[in-house]
Amino acid sequence: MEEEEEEDVSPKVSLKNNGSFICVAAPLFLYDKLPEEPLKLTILKLDGSSFDIEVARNGRVEDLKWTVIEAFSHCKISWLHVWGHFCLSYCGTKLLSDDDLIGTYGINDGNELSFVRHVSVGYNPEKTQSEGEDHQFNEPKAI
């Protein structure tokens, strides 16, 4: 059986002009710097179906949204429309600020997030609603 050669991890030293030793290269093994496993999350769509994604544990809401977009790269979707009318939610809290860290919301590996409706930036509560509109969601009433 062949033995693998072990890598030399001892610091490399050299002599200065005055004869003292200096360290010129010392490999560092910082285990806290190893890449973390991504969070595996399930996203529940409005129609009740779901899909799985993976996102960096230290990611932001914006990273989460981009991961959702990438999951549907094979489809032609107006994401401007989607994010203008819907947002992701975790345990009833809407994830509205793109700069928020995912961990801020307590999201952990295996959690489920869902798409929910939200008031878009262009929403004007002063606007008069027609008689056929539902005042709660601005959608036509079902007949």
UniProtKB/TrEMBL annotation:
Q: Where is the SNRNP25 ubiquitin-like domain?
A: 39-119
Q: Name one GO biological process term.
A: mRNA splicing, via spliceosome
The protein's name: SNRNP25 ubiquitin-like domain-containing protein
